[in-house]
Hints:
The protein is mostly helical. It contains four helices and no strands. Helices cover 76% and strands 0% of the residues.
Amino acid sequence: MDKNLISQIAVFYTLIxxxxxxxxVPDLGxxxxxxxELDKLIHFIMYLMLALIWGxxxxxxxxxxxxxxxxxxxxxxxxxxxxxVLPFGRYFDLCDFAANCLGVLFGIFILYYLKKKLL
Length: 119
């Protein structure tokens, strides 16, 4: 796949993730804190995709997988902190952050084993 296209997709996806994470969400009258709910699955999938896309973009993935994981986890933490700080009606949720981390780690795990099998 074309590296330039992957780079563009990675940047576009990251910007969309930032927007979706920081824009206000209408109150649907649902409880705000539950460990296992659809919201956590969405966080997991979004960060799984983020890890896969950035993992495909980065050269020498096998030697940089820890660095990629660290950056993406810190990115998720940064967005959660911004949700708490910015006045958009969002809040910091430790379970969202945990789902983000699990998504990143699972995405890196998948990509590591796929690349290992293909090479």
